[in-house]
Design a protein that fits this description.
The structure is a single chain. The protein has helices spanning about 20-30, 50-60, 70-75, 75-80, 95-100, 110-115, 130, 135-145, 170-185, 230-245, 270-280, 325-330, 350-360, 400-420, and strands at about 10-15, 35-40, 60-65, 85-90, 120-125, 150, 155, 165, 205-210, 215-220, 225, 245-250, 265, 285-290, 295-300, 320, 340-345, 365-370, 380-385, 385-390, 395, 400. The chain is α/β, with parallel strands linked by helices. The structure holds flavin mononucleotide (FMN). Flavin mononucleotide (FMN) binds near residues 44, 93, 95, 96 and 130. The site of flavin mononucleotide has 16 residues, from helix 5.
Length: about 425
């Protein structure tokens, strides 16, 4: 076994979720890689796994009580965090994340988390309704903005019998995130990029979010506003980044493209859902916003199918602006992907409009394409793009969308190699 975590000390905080059983395996996986693992078990966590199992697997005492005279004199809460290179909260329960977001320190886990200046990795796990609750989303967002790292949660069968988002990442995914953060500490800040690798997989260890396809904005239960985007370009970019070794989350609006292999796909419909899925997929090194997101949605979507009322007057719609996903990812305080690439679909003055879009949104690069009538770009197989960076405009020849994706992925890999080096 590769000792990727030799001499590293991990403080694993196990809070109260059913996924705590996976944390027992996580302890083994971290130790296999040479890490020392100390564990804090919350009161909730101790309902799901026993201190005895945790102590036996970690080969260390388990810490549970803030006010224990014995623990505090032998290994105080400050020392617990000082002696760790990284704190991992797995599972991160909704309750513990709420305490962290509020800055509470009323038990050992929350006190250690408030008293630390070390990187913290969250692996949230909970029922999908709890995960989707605005309070949980707000707390999670706050923690990411504060510079904490996160892995998952993924989609799938949940222990509660439901299916959806909220499943704790598998132990090996958490280990990979730990390795990324620890590997990246020498290359930059805790929220910064991880160290890339050269060779056939130059993006190995990098995490990318790619958006693709159109969004559907509901008018009523059967009608929606949409656009002609097919998802071909975004899906091809996701596949190309994965082909270079990146771990890719593809957030996709309704489309008929096959899911690219080796990519985690999050299917969404509306712009609001797309933003939420992107935020949930953070942290990431790379974000490529290729989706054709609707600028507006209908205010007050009708709960029942709208009907003609016999007056001959069509219904009036009020539109409200959708969240700006590219600007949100580009302008995040803490946790911003280090390379954010936007797409500009323009029908006139393509380069001028795209250059001002790059500055306005705060992204790093823009891929501009002419989607005017007769170009056949929307839904077609070919694309003619300009790659616009802070100091350059490159006109690329007309190419199949797959080739555009391959060229863009290669440029992204070169960017990371040039800026952060290769191993
Ligand atoms: C059977 C059962 C399963 C639970 N699973 C979860 C879960 O997966 N995620 C979560 O956030 N809370 C879950 N809860 C609720 C938490 O255990 C509860 O909020 C607890 O106070 C959290 O404690 P902590 O702050 O020590 O994490 C579950 C509760 C029960 C009874």
């Amino acid at each position: 076994m590769n000792q990727t975590l030799a001499d590293k000390n991990i403080l694993l905080i196990i809070s109260g979720g059913i996924a705590a059983y996976k944390s027992l395996d996580l302890i083994r996986r971290l130790k296999e890689r040479g890490a020392g693992v100390r564990c804090v078990l919350t009161q909730g966590g101790a309902q799901f796994v026993t201190p005895l199992s945790v102590a036996a697997l970690s080969e260390e005492a388990v810490f549970q009580d803030l006010f224990s005279l014995k623990d505090e004199s032998e290994m105080g809460h400050i020392r617990l965090s000082r002696e760790a290179d990284l704190l991992v909260v797995a599972p991160a329960s909704a309750d513990l994340m709420a305490k962290m977001a509020a800055g509470l320190a009323n038990d050992l886990a929350s006190t250690v988390l408030l008293a630390t200046d070390k990187p913290v990795l969250l692996a949230p796990a909970m029922n999908t309704v709890m995960w989707d609750h605005p309070a949980t989303r707000r707390n999670f967002r706050t923690l990411l903005d504060d510079g904490l790292h996160a892995v998952g949660p993924g989609q799938g069968d949940l222990a509660c019998g439901e299916v959806g988002a909220g499943r704790m990442s598998e132990p090996l995914e958490i280990v990979a995130a730990v390795e990324n953060i620890i590997g990246g500490q020498s290359a930059g800040p805790a929220t910064g990029p991880s160290t890339g690798q050269s060779g056939a997989a130059p993006l190995k260890g990098r995490r990318a979010i790619v958006t693709s396809g159109p969004t559907y904005e509901a008018i009523d239960p059967v009608r929606y506003l949409a656009n002609r985007s097919s998802g071909k370009q975004g899906h091809a970019i996701a596949a190309a980044l994965a082909g270079l070794g990146a771990e890719v989350v593809l957030v996709a609006g309704p489309n008929n493209q096959p899911d690219p292999g080796g990519v985690s796909v999050r299917d969404i419909e509306s712009a609001t859902q797309m933003l939420a899925a992107c935020e949930a997929a953070l942290p990431a090194d790379i974000a490529v916003c290729a989706a054709a997101v609707s600028d507006w949605r209908v205010a007050g979507e009708a709960e029942q199918k709208m009907k003609k009322d016999g007056s001959g007057q069509p219904p009036a719609f009020n539109l409200v602006e959708n969240p700006d996903i590219l600007a949100t990812l580009s302008q995040m305080n803490g946790g911003r992907p280090s390379l954010v690439v936007g797409f500009a679909a323009e029908t006139e003055k393509v380069v001028d409009h795209a250059q001002s879009k790059r500055t306005r949104k705060g992204c790093d690069w823009i891929v501009a394409n002419d989607v005017g009538a007769g170009t056949g770009v929307m839904g077609g197989d070919e694309n003619t793009v300009h790659l616009i960076t802070a100091d350059n405009v490159e006109a690329w020849p007309k190419m199949p969308k797959d080739a555009v994706a391959t060229a863009l992925a290669k440029r992204i890999a070169d960017h990371f190699t040039n800026h952060f080096g290769s191993e």
